[in-house]
Structure formats: C-alpha cells, structure tokens
Design a protein that fits this description.
Pathway: Nucleotide-sugar biosynthesis; UDP-alpha-D-glucuronate biosynthesis; UDP-alpha-D-glucuronate from UDP-alpha-D-glucose: step 1/1. It catalyses: UDP-alpha-D-glucose + 2 NAD(+) + H2O = UDP-alpha-D-glucuronate + 2 NADH + 3 H(+). There is one protein chain. With about 425 residues, the chain is an alpha/beta fold. The chain has two domains: about 200 residues, Rossmann fold; about 140 residues, Rossmann fold, CATH 3.40.50.720. The protein is built from 19 helices and 14 strands. β1, α1 and β2 form a beta-alpha-beta unit. α1 crosses α3 and α13 crosses α14. It binds uridine-5'-diphosphate-xylopyranose (UDX). Uridine-5'-diphosphate-xylopyranose binds next to α10.
Length: about 425
C-alpha cells in the first residue's frame, strides 16, 4: 500500500519508518527542506534508539522516501497521514491547529483518486470533522474520507511501542476507510493486536483521556509518596500492593519529580480547555495539572532544605536533565524548573546528561555542564538524581563518595537502594521510602 506521511517530527518519522517496515511504500513529506535533506543523507534529527537502523534499512530497500513535494507524495497514496506538530498555543494553552489545517488545505489541492486522510497528531475533539470540512469546501467533488488514528508511542521506546502496541484506535465512519486502515495495520492484526473502531470524536477523545489518566496516575503515586514519608510507609510496596490489583495495574506508579515531556503537559492542558468549553469541566485533570506544576518546585525546595546550612554557595551535582531516559528531549523536563530555582537560591549547579546536554545548554546556559557524570560530582555538597538513565544505576559508589565534599544523595527517581547507599557512607534521601530501609 502507498502511504504519505505529512510531518517528520517524532510521531511522523517513527510511524513512517514503521509502516515501511510493515512492507508499505511510504513517502514522508515536510516543508522543512533542511530536515528533509538531512534525512535523505541518513541523518536522524531525533535521538530514538533503533530509529537510524530502521530508516536506513527501509530506505535501502526503497520502501521509505523523504520529500518536500506534496504532489509527488500523494500520487497513488491510499492513506495520507497528518502528523504535524500541535503545540500549546501561547497564552491560552489550547492546542494550536494551524499546521493541521494547513496540511488539510494542501491535501485538498492535490487529492486525485480516493484517499483516506488520517490525523495521527494528537488533535482535540472535532478536528477531524473540521479537516473534512476544509477539504470538502476547497474541493467539493473530491473522493476522500477522514479518519483518526491516534498514536500512543512513548519516546525512548517508540519503535517497540509502535510495533507491539496494546491496541490500535481508529476513528472512521465508512467501510471503505475502515478497510484501508485495516489493510495498513494487517501485520499487527495478524499478531492479535486489538483494533478498536470508533467514530471520529471518540477516537480523538480516547487519546486525550488515556494521557490524562496516566498523568493522573503518576500524580496520585507522587502524592502517596509524600504521604508515605509522613507516616513511615514505603511507596514502592504500596505501588506493588495496589498494582497487583488487576483493576489498577502496576505501570505508571513510579514516584518522581513530576511528569514532563511533549505529551502529558500539553495534552492535559488541551483536554482541560476542551472540557471547560464543552461545559463538562474535568476537575480531576485540572487538579493534576496544578499539582504537577507545584511538585516540580516542591522538589527544588526539598533539595534546598536537605542541604546542610545556608544553600548559598553550596555545590549541587545534578545527574539527568531530560524528562525521562533514552531521549534527548528537554520539553517540560522537571530540570527546567528545579535547576533555575536552585540557582536563584545561590546554589552552584554542575550537571550531566548522557544525551540531553546540547539542548539543556541552550535552555539553561548558566549551568556548568560536565562530559562525565563523575566530573559533575567533584566537590559537590549533594547529588540530585533527576532522570533514571541506566548509566547512573551502576555507578561506582566508592568513587562517588570519594569525589563529593559532603555525601548527600537526593534520589528523585528511587533508583538506588537505601541500605546499600548508607553502607557506602551516604546520607541518602529518596521519595516515599523510610530512611531505615
Ligand atoms: C507519553 C505516553 O506514555 C504515550 O502513550 C503518548 O503517546 C505520549 O506521551 P512519553 O511522554 O514519551 O509518552 O513518556 P512516558 O514514558 O509516558 O513518561 C512521561 C513522563 O511521566 C516522564 O516525565 C516520566 O518520567 C514520567 N513518569 C512516567 C513518572 O514520573 N512515573 C511513572 O511511573 C511513569
């Protein structure tokens, strides 16, 4: 099947590459000529494990192409995906649909034979219908259907999430459109991946409802972690204990410094606005958004409290800057709130991240960045672990201890074991776990 993918951001590039791996003939289009020519040279603009090999293999086999020419890409394409960005609109937090509607207008101008126009970007409820209206009003006779196919992949594990999803959600309202999408996902349906067919609005809402629920789940365990600290309980055991209940499930119950990334903060905001505008406010989501913001600042305050004496002039080493491991993405990372707050209090921060330092440098130029994690620890009064990169799990504790001025470790991802840390001579603080454990 011939597929066109408009937008080579995270979702577009991963989805395009994975569809070509399914055996489809995929053309990815983007108006950013520099990005397209880089991709044509085999340069991948994002850090995502396995993506470079996947792109290289499918390009070599002739199933994956990159172009800036929409007309060329749409020739013979049965499905055209819109995977352009939907950033939060400055000021009001609504999803900015300019690029989506622009793509709809461009598709309308080029459409020839029957095409299914599919929104892959996370778009607010009602967008699919507006895309259909735009195409119909520009080209009243055009033979097309609009469908919604939200993507649930996570950064850092995007390819396996795409190839082995829990489910595929398709909002489509004609048999013809459903048939095209069923054929597109045939390799996954052969593996018994459930495909949920729904109407457009329902498919669009499923994506937001899922992301908001996960954000809520994380915030819930973060609050439970705070409570555990007050009452002397262990949040890891609480998470295990509740997660074994099949109705709750064990995932997304890891306490941390607050969720970040390109999806949860933006999508919860957009859903909140949709719900308010519809007259059915989602107060639980509103509370989650406010709590998550407050949590990031509270984590900085906790670090300041745990420094012995006046924070001014003390040195803090921060390990991990990206919003999660295995990505170079700094969007809405807790580090962007926590580090400036420490600096405002007079703390001297040195930091390390395996791949995020380029972007971090641009966003927070006043930090001392170190190419090596141990280098960041030299002379530190405390270590703050912010992102649970695997590289930090197996560090040499004796070497760490010897490098630091004071042996204080503040582990905001609970990656170390308290007993082991105390044995190595550290004063160890984690989230929601009793000190004596
Ligand atoms: C998320 C959704 O998981 C994915 O389905 C959707 O398509 C896009 O948004 P992503 O943002 O890539 O994916 O990362 P995810 O692994 O979900 O983590 C998001 C944030 O939540 C990170 O900051 C992470 O550290 C935090 N998190 C996650 C926790 O603090 N605790 C957890 O238990 C899980």
């Amino acid at each position: 099947m011939r597929v066109a993918m408009i937008g080579v951001g995270y979702v577009g590039l991963v989805s395009g590459a994975c569809f070509s791996e399914f055996g489809h003939d995929v053309v990815c289009i983007d108006s950013d000529a520099a990005r397209i020519s880089a991709l044509e040279q085999g340069e991948i603009p994002i850090y995502e494990p396995g993506l470079d090999e996947l792109v290289a293999r499918n390009r070599a086999d002739g199933r994956l192409r990159f172009t800036t020419d929409l007309m060329d890409a749409l020739q013979g394409a049965e499905a055209v995906f819109i995977a352009v960005g939907t950033p939060s609109r400055r000021g009001d937090g609504h999803a900015d649909l300019t690029y989506v509607y622009q793509a709809a207008g461009e598709i309308a101008a080029e459409i020839s034979a029957y095409t299914v126009v599919v929104t892959k970007s996370t778009v607010p409820v009602g967008t699919g219908r507006e895309v259909a209206r735009i195409i119909r009003s520009a080209r009243p006779g055009a033979d097309f259907d609009v469908a919604s196919n939200p993507e649930f992949l996570r950064e850092g594990s995007a390819i396996s999430d795409f190839m082995r999803p829990d489910r595929i959600v398709i909002g489509a309202e004609s048999d013809r459109a459903r048939e095209v999408l069923r054929r597109l996902y045939r390799p996954l349906s052969l593996r018994d991946t459930p495909i949920l067919f729904a109407d457009l609005e329902t498919a669009e809402l499923i994506k937001y409802a899922a992301n908001a629920f996960l954000a809520l789940k994380i915030s819930y365990i973060n609050q439970i972690a705070d409570l555990c600290e007050k009452v002397g309980a262990d949040v890891q055991d609480v998470a295990r204990g509740i997660g074994l209940d099949g109705r709750i499930g064990p995932k997304f119950l890891h306490p941390g410094p607050g969720y970040g990334g390109s999806c949860f903060p933006k999508d919860t905001q957009a859903l909140m606005h949709t719900a308010q505008a519809a007259g059915a406010p989602l107060t639980l989501v509103e509370a989650t958004i406010a709590y998550n913001e407050a949590r990031k600042s509270a984590m900085a305050d906790r670090v300041l409290q745990l420094l012995e004496g006046d924070a001014h002039g003390q040195r803090v080493a921060v390990l991990g800057l990206t919003f999660k491991p295995n990505t170079d993405d700094m969007r809405e990372a807790p580090s962007l709130t926590i580090l400036p707050r420490l600096q405002t209090a007079g703390v001297v921060v040195s930091a390390h991240d395996p791949v995020g330092m380029g972007e971090a440098r641009r966003l927070m130029p006043d930090i001392r960045y170190c190419d090596d994690a141990y280098e960041a620890l030299a002379g530190a009064d405390a270590l703050v672990l912010l992102t649970e990169w695997n590289a930090y799990r197996g560090m040499d504790l004796q070497r760490m201890r010897a490098l630091m001025r004071r042996p204080v470790v503040i582990d905001l991802r609970n990656v170390y074991r308290s007993r082991e840390m105390r044995k190595a001579g550290f004063i160890y603080h984690s989230l929601g776990r009793p000190k004596w454990r």
